[in-house]
Amino acid sequence: MRKIHHYVNGEQFDGTSGQYQPVLNPSTGQAQAEVALASTDDVNSVIAATAAAQPAWAAQNPQKRIRVIMKWIALIHDHMDELAEQLSLEHGKTFPDAKGDIQRGVDVLEFSLGAPHQLKGEYSNGVGTGVDTYSMRQPLGVVAGITPFNFPAMIPLWKAGPALAAGNGFILKPSERDPSVPNRLAELFVEAGGPKGVFNVVHGGKESVDALLDSDTVKAIGFVGSTPIAQYIYERCAATGKRAQCFGGAKNHAIVLPDADIEATADTILGAAFGSAGERCMALSVVVPVGRETADKLRDAIARKIPGLNVGHSLDPKSDFGPLVTADARDRVNRLVGEGVADGADLVYDGRNLDMSSAEFDGNSLAEGFFAGPSFFDNVTRDMSIYTEEIFGPVLCMVRVDTAEEAIALPNEHVYGNGVAIFTANGGAARDFAEQVQVGMVGINVPIPVPIAYHTFGGWKASGFGDLNQHGPDSFRFYTKTKTVTVKWPDESHAGPQFTMPIMN
Fold it and tell me: What DSSP letter does each residue of 167-216 carry, written as one string?
């Protein structure tokens, strides 16, 4: 059985705990590797190694740091297929989707090449007689990212790129479900010329997370995962004086106005709802058509298209989406679909009955894989668990409303506020919607409105905790601290001791 170790100081590190967890292939249900789980002592040794390496990295000027990142980007592109295949085999998303996962992370590395500009301070000349003031941005020191299983390349790179470009040492604690790609990314950073020890990877569960949260050396935590854990980490960081950006769950709505192109909208919603088996924080899981005629047409279009979707092995080029990441994830999806039926929603298409008993790919049986087919509900109400909870699976809910005002009230009043979309040809309606909706990221005829790398990514309400978001200029603000310097050089006008608050005249 292949063993996946921690990656520390440019080397594989097995740790001292002696504990391992299987890494499964979700398409077959079979173990393909074991990943080491760190003890508190292991994490503390990784923190110490990062703290030892960081000052020399920070002392390099930003241009030298970004030259390393430029080479890192090139190496990631050189190894793209290798990385995507490994990601696909451990997560279950399709090979093309895995390449998109990696590329969206690389986008933020490319934005991070602007570090010399992002790190510039401000200068004010002559704020008083003979007095100037300027500011500088300096790295925090050692920072950490705790990242989820569903984007094992993109989100680690969203954290690591700006943190490293700003001169910090970075510790990545990725999901233990798909740990190979995070390790490989750290290896490629060192191969690109990054100093050993500046970017380290440690694997583990709650014990590892708590060790990072409790360390006085770690100055900031970036987290993406479920809302309860996001809030736990945010609160614990506040108690120990750490910076934190913690992103949680979502329930993303798609508002469909009567003037929308129904066929095109249905196609778009299918991809956004069922892509990556719905295991995206930006997946469209609730569609809200305005008016009965719009709802009936959209229901018919979606119901007609769902049977044409192919669910299969993550590397099968015919697959539209693959399995869920674990058996527990699949079982949770099936349970919630059952609750929707029990609550009285109209189950138009039932994905629980997907039969993979005789399916295979490349000689491998898929009978034990963690597959769930697409499920589609109509006549969902806002009190049902399939509406209130983040299902994180291939389940689409339709909530019918009569007016646009009722439609916008749904995302505005939901506990989550990650992403939302509106489908319309009416520019005025779209503009009003973007102004009024209480959600962090808005798409206008764009189903998954993940901002490009030079704009910020972040949800509102229970979807995000913290003042500064991921990537874009916010990332450099998060991973640096501002120092303001006031300067006055000696002259002949010394007036003796001053005992009042200084005033710049």
Answer: T-EEEEE--TTS-HHHHHHHHHHHHTTPPTTSEEE---SHHHHHHHHH-S
